[in-house]
Amino acid sequence: SAEWRKEDGLLVFTIEADRFLRNMVRAIIGTVLKVGQGKISIDEFSEIIEAKDRKRAGDSAPAHGLFLVEIKYPEEFL
By 3-state DSSP, what share of the chain in percent is helix, strand and coil, each rounded to 5? Predict the structure, then answer.
């Protein structure tokens, strides 16, 4: 899942998945910013995500402001 919300005057992006690749969240944010800037459409964003081709994504967003909040393990690993 992924969502944007306003919190104390800031835009906060939260993403949850069962695994992440190196630099994945930063690439997603960089591509979302291209949508916000009108450089690509929502449909183009969807195509980029579905293509699973990093070369089609936008530049990586800066790492500052990126936080790991929680790690959840399946019950069988606990």
Answer: 35, 15, 45
